Amino acid sequence: MNRRELLVGATAPLFIPRSVFGANDRPTFGIIGTGNRGGWLHTAFMKLGAHCAAVCDTYEPFMEKARSISPAGCKTYADYHELIDRKELDFVVVATPDHQHRPMLFAALAAGKDVYLEKPFSMNIAQSAEMVSAVRKTDRIVQVGMQRRSMPFIYAAKKLIDDGALGKVWHARAAWNWNFLEWLDTKPLEGKLDWDRFLGEAPKRPLDPKRFRWWRGFYDYSGGNMTDQGTHLMDVVQWMTGNTSPQSAICSGAVSRAVLAEAPDVFTAVFNYPSMMATWTLCYTSAYDYDWSVTFQGEKATMVLNRKGYRIFKEPVPSAAPWTAGGADTVIAEMADHDSAELHQQNFLDCIKSRQQPNCTVEIAASAVAGPHMANIAYREGRRVTA
């Protein structure tokens, strides 16, 4: 392909954002978990035209903030079962710590609700299988919050890879770099927390503020940074290269600066697939090469995907200059990410009306998190894990 052919393929319109619900045809929802990500989803769905009738959180300050920006008459709940039982709710948003995903999904399905479920999908591979099976025994629409599945520039990148722009891809590198100070202080919480409801099915223990402030640092409530960010990036790796979950995983890492946590804040995992390998590296102690990126190294060209869009770099001809380095002057195609902020939530709203499957099905989500689950076992047990 020449530069023009690449750019034409890259810029073809893939999504037309639209509102499918009129003033008298608005879906009604309740949201469980209204902290950082849940707070954003709460406002996003209202912005897209959905009506929030109920909010639920174990931490009173989060819940009160959510209620204050909701329409008049929005009810608050400490018990998520009471929210789910509201007959007028068309769908439920679950944006809680990971260990609550399975019981809340099951409760919502039993009540006949569609569900927008935050990632990562599950706490382990066995849970993934149970959750997929439970969803497929119903006719409910379940979208998992892996928003890259609704980003136009990633669909464009996928088409270019499928059309052979990179040639054979032997190696993919996923990375996430933040200079991130986890909220692991142990001072008392400001405001009321229902600790027993926060724990749910997790092991019982006395109230520990740091476990609430940074629950992603503890394996009782999450898969750590490995599954939190890894489910996003390993999905992109597998999707772009036509792979499902890996054949094997190894991992080395360390609890470097987050010394009060269990899960590592610096690590590298290595995954083997039938015809390629991939690495997944996270560093939460440095902002160099800031944020997320996935690099696909092909025989003809290399593609770098990140929060700004994608760029393709031409590969030097080995016979002419075997050690020549590529650089910015070798860019042969690029596309920026302009407007994907709420497209994933819009896709879900479209699907609960059309009853079509959403961009991120439960099967996709289960496959995406399988590799990170394997890498967590490899890290914690110090061994190579095979599928």
Topology:
Layout: H1 3-11, E1 28-32, H2 36-47, E2 51-56, H3 60-68, E3 75-77, H4 80-84, E4 91-94, H5 101-110, E5 114-117, H6 125-136, E6 142-144, H7 152-162, E7 169-177, H8 195-199, H9 209-213, H10 224-241, E8 248-254, E9 266-273, E10 276-283, E11 291-298, E12 301-306, E13 309-314, E14 331-336, H11 343-354, H12 362-381, E15 385-386
Parallel strand pairs: 1-2, 1-4, 2-3, 4-5, 5-6, 7-10
Antiparallel strand pairs: 7-11, 8-9, 8-15, 9-10, 11-12, 12-13, 13-14
Helix pairs in contact: 1-7, 5-6, 6-12, 7-10, 10-12
Structure description:
With 387 residues, this protein is of the alpha/beta class. The chain has two domains: 14-147 and 344-361, NAD(P)-binding Rossmann-like Domain (Rossmann fold, 3-Layer(aba) Sandwich); 149-339 and 369-386, Dihydrodipicolinate Reductase, domain 2, CATH 3.30.360. The protein has twelve helices and 15 strands. The strands form two sheets. A nine-stranded mixed β-sheet has the order 14-13-12-11-7-10-9-8-15. Strands 3-2-1-4-5-6 form a six-stranded parallel β-sheet, with helices on both faces.
